[in-house]
């Protein structure tokens, strides 16, 4: 099969996944994924795993853990969601994206089983369940030593929650996806605590007392040891410079002057959570692997700095108030006193008011734009909400026109879909075919 034919076949698989199993259609429950995996021979039970959940930070922690394990010489599968620019980002072997050819091969192996399950609606898997099963099968076929798995949504009923990991991690607990997870911190913490397994240690970077109480109660019933930041492990910031953030870690082991290329003080806390998670697994790791892995770790679209045509773009996928707060803190640290523009798009189902409130008094120019997602239908509502917090709000619906019109340093945020779309254009000069599906 030629490269062109391969790409065509790959795009056909994506077209099927996106349209037959729309991404926005959440189907909670583990029955469908369990049945699908059973028919595939339970590939997720053929290797060790680490399970990473939380409201914010889970993608970054997954990336740090993966890179440290790779530096130690392990063969590592990593699973992320959502993707920014290409579907292939979701499924990785040693942090290399799955190839178009392998996406097609894995899907073709699953297709007869999917057709069988689709005969009855109650057994028909969702988009996320199919993709999760594809990742599990790919990792088994590639003989990984260990898989590091980012939770998709919540935890208790998430499709990834079929594994029995070496360690469960809940990075943070905050308000997001309230319609699905609940409207209080306690309810959200309970949903996320669903990933805690009998006798499996739990690591958390959460500090809120009400969230910790819920997690500790669930862990107690499951006979799980809990490791909490500032109590069982800690980090100390030494210096913060763009792409060179230094800190000390104190846990079971002590490491001084570690260097993290990911930006923001919250990423140093995430690194602490990643290191404690690895300690809790009991896997042998050298100090060299830890230092090297942290330097190599990078999470695209999270306070990512890109330069184009003499302009600086700060891309950050913050899409809830807690993420917005972290972004503001990082901007003040790294871009203090610099005039900044804001290009923002927020999906309809997000807490637009509380997100926008965090950005008052920071930006010279505010441009509201459209998120390239079917989940954004109410552009006027976003504009009206923005006008509550900013005097001069410009509206440029096309995200690429919005960033082109912005002069000087520009922050692009509000949605991972928006950041992914803009990032694709800034890094390649075009928008790939996947966005047109």
TrEMBL record:
Top-level enzyme category: ligase
Cofactor: Mg(2+)
Listed pathway(s): Cofactor biosynthesis; tetrahydrofolylpolyglutamate biosynthesis; Cofactor biosynthesis; tetrahydrofolate biosynthesis; 7,8-dihydrofolate from 2-amino-4-hydroxy-6-hydroxymethyl-7,8-dihydropteridine diphosphate and 4-aminobenzoate: step 2/2
EC number: 6.3.2.12, 6.3.2.17
Keywords for the protein's UniProt record, in alphabetical order: ATP-binding, Folate biosynthesis, Ligase, Magnesium, Metal-binding, Nucleotide-binding
Residue span, Mur ligase central domain: 52-275
Molecular function via GO: ATP binding; dihydrofolate synthase activity; metal ion binding; tetrahydrofolylpolyglutamate synthase activity
NCBIfam families recorded: folC (TIGR01499)
Assembly mode: Monomer.
Protein name: Dihydrofolate synthase/folylpolyglutamate synthase
Organism per entry: Thermotoga sp. TBYP3.1.4.1
């Amino acid at each position: 099969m030629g490269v062109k034919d391969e790409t065509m076949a790959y795009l056909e698989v994506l077209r099927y996944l996106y349209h037959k199993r729309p991404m926005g259609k959440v189907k909670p429950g583990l029955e469908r994924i369990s049945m699908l995996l059973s028919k595939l021979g339970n590939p997720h039970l053929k290797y060790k795993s680490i399970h990473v959940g939380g409201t914010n930070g889970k993608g970054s922690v997954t990336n740090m853990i993966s890179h440290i394990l790779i530096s130690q010489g392990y063969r590592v599968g990593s699973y992320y969601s959502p993707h920014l620019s290409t579907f292939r980002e979701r499924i990785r072997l040693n942090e290399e994206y799955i190839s178009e050819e392998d996406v097609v091969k894995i899907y073709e192996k699953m297709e007869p089983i999917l057709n069988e399950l689709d005969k009855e609606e109650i057994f028909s898997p969702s988009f996320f369940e199919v993709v999760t099963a594809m990742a599990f099968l790919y990792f088994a076929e590639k003989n990984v030593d260990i898989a590091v798995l980012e939770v998709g949504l919540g935890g208790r009923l998430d499709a990834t929650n079929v594994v029995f990991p070496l360690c469960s991690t809940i990075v943070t607990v905050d308000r997001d996806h309230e319609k699905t997870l609940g409207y209080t911190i306690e309810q959200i913490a309970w949903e996320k605590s669903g990933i805690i397994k009998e006798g499996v240690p739990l690591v958390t970077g959460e500090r809120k007392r009400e969230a910790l109480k819920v997690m500790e109660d669930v862990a107690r019933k499951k006979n799980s040891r809990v490791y909490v930041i500032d109590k069982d492990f800690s980090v100390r910031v030494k210096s913060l410079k763009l792409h060179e953030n230094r800190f000390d870690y104190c846990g079971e082991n002590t490491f001084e002057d570690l260097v993290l290329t990911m930006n923001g003080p919250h990423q140093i806390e995430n690194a602490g959570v990643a290191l404690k998670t690895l300690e809790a697994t009991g896997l042998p790791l050298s100090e060299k692997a830890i230092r090297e892995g942290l330097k190599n770790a990078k999470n695209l679209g999270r306070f990512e700095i890109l330069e184009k045509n003499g302009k600086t773009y700060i891309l950050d996928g913050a899409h809830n108030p807690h993420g917005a707060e972290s972004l503001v803190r990082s901007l003040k640290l790294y871009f203090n006193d610099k005039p900044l523009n804001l290009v923002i798009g927020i999906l309809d189902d997000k807490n637009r008011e509380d997100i926008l409130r965090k950005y008052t008094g920071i930006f010279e120019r505010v441009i509201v734009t459209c998120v390239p997602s079917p989940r954004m239908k109410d552009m006027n509502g976003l504009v009206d909400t923005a006008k509550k917090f900013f005097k001069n709000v410009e509206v440029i619906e096309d995200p690429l026109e919005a960033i082109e019109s912005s002069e000087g340093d520009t922050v692009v945020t509000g949605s991972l879909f928006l950041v992914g779309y803009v990032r694709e254009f800034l890094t390649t000069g075009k928008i790939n075919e996947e966005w047109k599906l």
